[in-house]
Amino acid sequence: MRSSLVESALYSPVTRKSERQKASYEQMSERTPYLLMKRAMDVVASLLVILLIYPLFFPLLALVIKLTSRGPVFFKQKRAGLGNRTFWCYKFRTMYVNDAADSRRASRNDPRVTRVGYFLRNTCLDELPQFLNVLRGDMSIVGPRPHMLKDIREFSSVIDNYTFRSLVRPGITGLSQVRGYRGPATTFHSIFRRYQWDAYYVRNVSLRLDCKIMAKTVVLMFSSFFNKDKPVPVDSPVFRQQAQSVAKKIA
Predict the structure, then answer these.
(1) 141: phi then psi, degrees, rounded to nearest 5
(2) CA 44 to chain CA mean position, Å
(3) Pairwise CA distance, residues 90 & 109, whole Å
């Protein structure tokens, strides 16, 4: 049964929603210095990755992908970004070519995912091409993960004001991911918990929080190399308790 908090979030009046949105836009406009600094850091960091990391990893990963399955090296998909505007998001291809790539999200033990794809997904190396999106201004290094358009429509139909996440640029990594919410979002509970952390991030954006998320992401990436068969943590009791404690701060 949904909690009263969830019910109020789902069925709040339109006027209340409009007031929240107006207050949120005003709040973000007051953080222009932070946003400018963050954009400068995104440009510098993405340039460093493209110049130093890409020459080492791109040829090797491209070769492995091509040798192990048919299809292009890269996968591109329309995603929702800042202000809910769409953009082409790039990744290394991790699935066999299929007709449901834009309509059916990946699930655990998905037969469409290649053997190399499982490794790339588990270590987040499939996201490397998204530094090009960061350089273009479509994304940031830290922010709510961008969803495919079908997911945005579905999630918005069950969670009021879901597009609140779009007040900041989507990120390669985000607070909900380092809090354990990686992998498929197949239930209302998992969708709502992700939204809680994403909205909490939007309300509390700061360079300090960004640095914490990036540091935690690096730790998770390295641990993934040594726990490649370990299931991705989703909705653990610890994170569930933490999510409940900040629920009242969510938009």
Answers:
(1) -70, -40
(2) 21
(3) 22
In 10 A of CB 35, how many CB atoms?
Answer: 15
H or E, element range at 171: strand 171-173
Q: What is the pLDDT of residues 152-179, one digit of tens each?
A: 999 998 898 898 999 999 999 999 989 9
- The type of residue at 22 is K
pLDDT in tens, 109-131: 788 999 999 899 888 899 999 99
Beta bridge mates, 79: 87, 148
DSSP strands (E only) in 5-134: 74-80, 86-92
Domain ranges of the chain: 4-249
> Does residue 57 carry a pLDDT above 80?
yes
CA-closest candidate to residue 116, choices 98, 82, 89, 93: 93
> Tokens representing 191?
């969708």
Tokens of 55: 């020459």
b/e per residue 220-251 (b: at least 16 CB within 10 A): beeebeeeeeeebebbeeebeebbeeebeebb
Prediction pTM value: 0.79
